[in-house]
Amino acid sequence: MTARPRILVVDDDPTVVDIATTVLGSASYDVAAVRTGADALRLARKERFDLVLLDINMPGMDGWETLRLIKADEEIRDLRVVMFSVKGEIRDKVHGLQGGAVDYLTKPFEVDELLSRVGRVLGEGGNPAGTLPRGA
């Protein structure tokens, strides 16, 4: 039996954290959440994650700095990061991808899109648990 993929959600908005953790948990992922970039770095160095969903607009250390520090750290530089943000302009997406993110998801997001992108990044070809029922 293989372990469930572990995902770290990093966002200072409790509503986004609740939605993302509920949706991903329902799709059989093991999900942890933190609300700051500093906490994300500490937890990523302490525990193994397969993917980080990283918000950009956070107080203190923003997502850009958090991504830069992840990619500069020998212990966690191979960690796959998907940026997710209300910043939907092309320059933001390109900045994230050039900074080492493997994908960029614009908020607000649809549940099916979140699951599809996470599944693709984790090599599952899409949503690992199938499409969630409407209203999930």
What does this 3D model show about the protein?
With 136 residues, this protein is α/β, with parallel strands linked by helices. It has one domain: Rossmann fold (3-Layer(aba) Sandwich), CATH 3.40.50.2300. Helices cover 39% and strands 18% of the residues. The protein is built from five helices and five strands. A five-stranded parallel β-sheet has the order 2-1-3-4-5, sandwiched between helices. α3 links the parallel β3 and β4. The longest helix is centred in the first third of the chain and has 13 residues. The protein is globular. The C terminus is likely disordered.
Secondary structure elements and their pairing?
Blueprint: E1 6-10, H1 14-26, E2 30-34, H2 37-46, E3 51-54, H3 63-72, E4 80-85, H4 90-98, E5 103-106, H5 111-121
Parallel strand pairs: 1-2, 1-3, 3-4, 4-5
Helix pairs in contact: 2-3
Overall pLDDT score: 89
- The largest sheet has its strands arranged as 2-1-3-4-5
Q: List low-pLDDT spans.
A: 126-136
**For this structure, what is the CATH class?**
Alpha Beta
- Rounded to the nearest angstrom, the radius of gyration is 14 Å
Q: How many DSSP H or I helices?
A: 5
CATH homologous superfamily placement: Response regulator
- Care to count the β-strands? 5
